[in-house]
Every structure is written in C-alpha cells, then in structure tokens.
Write a structure and sequence with these properties.
alpha+beta, about 50% strand, about 190 residues, binds 2-acetamido-2-deoxy-beta-D-glucopyranose, elongated
Length: about 190
C-alpha cells in the first residue's frame, strides 16, 4: 500500500491504519466466537388444529404439531432435553427428548406433536386473552427448548451449560373447512 518514496508521515499513517485494521478484525472474530451460540434453533412449520377451553375455563384441549430445527456449529453433547408448550405463560404440554445426538455442522429436524387436554388456571387475564384470540382465530403460543449442553475443552475439562431457547409463534387455528398450510413463516428461537 505504501510507496517506497512516500514521506515519513504518510507511511506512519498507512502503517497505523493497517495495524488498527488487523486489531479490529481479530477483536471482531473474538467477539463473534464468544457471542455465537453453538447451535441455532428454529420452528420451520406448525399446525394448530384444536385449541378449546371448556365452559368452566379449567381445561384446555389442544392439537399442535410442529417441526423444530436444530443446527449444531460446535462440538457438544445435549442431555435432558425438554420441549415445553405455553399459552399465556402457562405450560400446557411437555415432551421429553432426553439425550440428543447431533452431528457437528448438521441440521436435525424434530417432528413433534402434542395432542390432549390440560387442566390449568389461565387466570382472568389469560381467559380474556383466550376469548379475544378465539374470535380472530389467531393464538400466541410459546415453545421452549431446554436442557444441558456439555462441551469439552482442548485439555479435557468438561463444561455444562444450561440451554434455553424460546420460540414465539402466532398460529391460526385450522379447521376442516379451510387450511392455512403453506402460510407458516419459519420462526427463529432465542
Ligand atoms: C370443567 O369441565 C370439564 C369438562 O367440561 C370437567 O371435566 C372438569 O371436571 C370441570 N372442572 C371443574 C373444576 O368443574
Ligand atoms: C391432530 O391434528 C392432526 C393434523 O395436524 C391430525 O392428523 C390428527 O388426527 C389430530 N388428532 C386428533 C386426535 O384430533
Ligand atoms: C401441517 O399441515 C400440512 C397440511 O396438512 C402438512 O403438509 C404439514 O406437514 C403439517 N406440518 C406439521 C409440522 O405437522
Ligand atoms: C419431519 O418433517 C419434515 C417436513 O416437515 C420432513 O422433511 C422430515 O423427513 C420429517 N422427519 C422425520 C424424522 O419424520
Ligand atoms: C384428557 O387427557 C387424559 C390423558 O392425559 C385422558 O386420559 C383423558 O381421557 C382426556 N380427557 C378427555 C375428555 O379427552
Ligand atoms: C370460542 O369460539 C367458539 C366458536 O367459534 C365458541 O363455541 C366457544 O364458546 C368460544 N370459547 C370461548 C372460551 O370463548
Ligand atoms: C378459517 O376459518 C376460521 C374460522 O372458521 C376463520 O376465522 C379464518 O379466517 C379462516 N381462514 C381462512 C384463511 O380462510
């Protein structure tokens, strides 16, 4: 970049700029390496075909199916994995995935379905939210992926992290007359 015959000042400026650029890039890489989580989680597709509250408002009947995508970037093992479904901060279903075997830099698709009834206390604000959603046909659900990630450093030390991802979904209740298939846009989990 510097020409041989350039003046001292310009050369110094040029040299400093190069040093600064190198520094900034390495700091950048370091930050990316620390901040980037070792996996990426998303919901690729979901169907809600039943979501009903009994007249006495104590029992929720539901039928939800979804495809969860997990992409692993770094070497790690996953243990005690659970997928929990929430409506208005109340858990209505839970799936135990146990230990997950994932290959590095590979994507795993999990097709999960939860279908049943749950006794729950939505409280008055939850019942109000339900009634409003029941009129529009759109329900806000939350899916959580939880578990433990165990990774090993170069010297063999094992590190255990608590892992927790939250996926916020707005789903349209489908009935047999109409189907909303193909309308779902993938949702990133954080
Ligand atoms: C509410 O209604 C459901 C069915 O309609 C019934 O199974 C349940 O026992 C009732 N709960 C209460 C607390 O009355
Ligand atoms: C739940 O919904 C799926 C469609 O997503 C359907 O195939 C299945 O029969 C439903 N299950 C029940 C018990 O209604
Ligand atoms: C949702 O329903 C559509 C149409 O029935 C089906 O093609 C799709 O595979 C379903 N997705 C999931 C995650 O169940
Ligand atoms: C899960 O569903 C996707 C499509 O939604 C399909 O491509 C994949 O093969 C299914 N995986 C399993 C294990 O059934
Ligand atoms: C509610 O779910 C339980 C299993 O969790 C089942 O035994 C029961 O029959 C279901 N109730 C109704 C009314 O479908
Ligand atoms: C939800 O809407 C259906 C009609 O679409 C109605 O029969 C039911 O009573 C409503 N449930 C609540 C809790 O408002
Ligand atoms: C499907 O039916 C529900 C209830 O009958 C309605 O609220 C919704 O707008 C319909 N969706 C489409 C795409 O027609």
């Amino acid at each position: 970049m510097c020409e041989d015959d350039c003046e001292g000042k310009i050369c110094c400026l040029c040299f400093c700029t190069v040093i600064l650029l190198i520094l900034a890039t390495s700091v950048g890489f370091l930050i990316v390496a620390i901040v980037t989580p070792p996996e990426k989680v998303a919901i690729l597709d979901a169907n809600l075909t039943r979501f009903e509250l009994t007249a006495n408002q104590t029992t929720l009947f539901y039928n939800l199916s979804f495809t969860m995508k997990i992409h692993k970037y770094k070497e790690a093992d996953y243990h005690d994995m659970d997928v929990d479904c929430y409506y208005n901060t109340k858990k209505f279903d839970s799936r135990k995935l146990g230990d997950l075997k994932l290959k590095i830099r590979r994507t795993r698709l999990l097709n999960l379905s939860s279908n049943g009834n749950s006794t729950m206390d939505l409280e008055s604000n939850g019942v109000d939210a339900f009634k409003r959603s029941n009129e529009t046909g759109f329900f806000d659900l939350e899916i959580q992926l939880k578990g433990k990630r165990i990774s090993e450093s170069d010297d063999g030390t094992r590190y255990t992290y608590k892992l927790s991802y939250q996926c916020n979904l707005r789903l349209q209740l489908e009935n047999s007359q109409n189907s909303t298939q193909g309308n779902f846009k993938p949702v990133k989990c954080h």
